[in-house]
Amino acid sequence: MNLENVLVEQKDNLATITINRPTKLNALNKATIEELHLVFKTLNEDNSVKVIIVTGSGEKAFVAGADISEFADFNVEEGTELSRKGHENLFDFVQNLGTPVIAAVNGFALGGGLELAMAAHFRVASFNAKMGLPEVSLGVIPGYGGTQRLPQLVGKGKAMEMIMTAAMISAEEAKDWGLVNYVVEQKELIPLCEKLANKIINNSSVAIEAAIKAVNANYTNCVNGFSVEIEQFGVSFGTEDFKEGTSAFLEKRKPNFE
Based on C-alpha coordinates, what's the Rg of the chain? Predict the structure, then answer.
């Protein structure tokens, strides 16, 4: 892949994506979103990749927002299309990816940056991280899923406060509100994400993908999450991983998931 704004490193079953626009605090522009879509799609199609970590370059920012200069003069139609494409190509795409995605939030995660972190399946932050959705201070609203995912994670009241005040919260506050799972020192951020990733890697990727579908269904309009869980539970019984997992349990050995 010919990438200008994204770095990709793979070690065994773990891939790490680093958004690399340090002079722009890793802000998301159109090219970066397209590159991220390509990278996530490629890694998801690689059966050797069991977990993906996404982070930002440097120690200041995960992603400090969208590149405002690209859309400051957009009209209604262009703004609508900007949001729609972003949802399809990156934010919804990541949320529904069959490969687990961990966001390693290593600094500012603002606007589109927080929206990308929230699209990941869960988040780990460094103590210096700051998170917020400042869009209303620019006369616009979060357009990459922020108005939907933030209330799901922190509750309606806190989400309304964060969106309407455009204020940033600390990593510790984010942990208290359930926005991130862990807060650690900067040097411990990637090692902890890798430790969690390795725990995931030991389990059935087939079952994890089914679990992602079932959990996400609960947050999808007009979809009965319980019905999806029942369906995916049943489908699991027809997989080789189910045969291996149950056989290993009964034989008192560790499973070897292919």
Answer: 19
